[in-house]
Amino acid sequence: MTYRTSRRRALQLGLAASLAAPAIAPAAVRAQQGWPAGPITWINPFPAGGGTDVFARPLAAQVGDQLGVQILIDNKGGAGGTVGASQAAKMKPDGQAFLVGAVHHTIAPSIYKNLDYDLEKNFEPITMIALVPQVISINPNRIPVKTAVELIEYVKKNPGKVNYASAGAGTAHHLAGELFKLETKTDIVHVPYRGAGPAMQDLLAGNADMMFDGMGTSAQQIKAGKLLGLAVATPKRTAEFPDMPTAAEIGVPNWIVSTWYGLWAIKGTPQPIVDRMYQEIVKALQTPKLQAIWKEQTAQLGGETPQEFAKRIRAEIEKWQKVVDAAGVKLD
């Protein structure tokens, strides 16, 4: 079996949409009078052009068309997404503003000790919109290995001599590396950059040895032969790289890491509006246009229920807190 956007998932999304519509319609008619009251804003707490933008912008355009209003993406980057999230938490819960973010928000509580917001208390989960698996990519000119097993053996023989680039301290890329180090009992030096782009550029230029990165970013470089992909942090092999082994296959079964993106409402937003937005996202994810974009980015379709998304958030917060504590991660 492969890790991919599948016909089965599309059918599940269709069922979710058909079930959601009649369930919320009567209440929605009453509670949504006057909504949307003009353009809707999705606050993206990461810089323009990043991974969140890749999925948020086409999704916002499609959902906006369905609702008959414009959905604006307002990028408010800074401090691992916490600056924008803090601003979003203070927005009026009237259904005109939402937070579109990523897995990084579940890492932030364990990294930033003085947050002025609480992800679970100040926001209402709507759904995950996309999920991209992490992959180990190496510069083959820097490390003389061909497989992930050989990489682990090489690093153990050369502790502290191999480095990995990341999008920055406290990011999913960083924590993926720290989790890998914990699970393999290896010593790999972390080199943080200001974004995944600069990190990838240095890896390609031969100024870094390896990187734990989202497959969407690494796929083209791997296919072009510029990087060597050694393993995916997923339970199953991917459709894009069916010959690339999984975490379990290289002897690291607990190294399951994905970069996912999601949408939250401001806490206190009327439930019918939350339900309607969820329904519209599920509907949008069924469109061939969005499915083609997701496939191009090697991303799994989102669309899980708000309850499922809430469980994912809680589990990831607990997971990354343990990794941060065990690895002794501190911001540079």
Automatic annotation (TrEMBL):
<keyword id="KW-0732">Signal</keyword>
<dbReference type="InterPro" id="IPR042100">
    <property type="entry name" value="Bug_dom1"/>
</dbReference>
<feature type="signal peptide">
    <location>
        <begin position="1"/>
        <end position="27"/>
    </location>
</feature>
<protein>
    <submittedName>
        <fullName>ABC transporter substrate-binding protein</fullName>
    </submittedName>
</protein>
<dbReference type="Pfam" id="PF03401">
    <property type="entry name" value="TctC"/>
</dbReference>
<comment type="similarity">
    <text>Belongs to the UPF0065 (bug) family.</text>
</comment>
<dbReference type="InterPro" id="IPR005064">
    <property type="entry name" value="BUG"/>
</dbReference>
<dbReference type="InterPro" id="IPR006311">
    <property type="entry name" value="TAT_signal"/>
</dbReference>
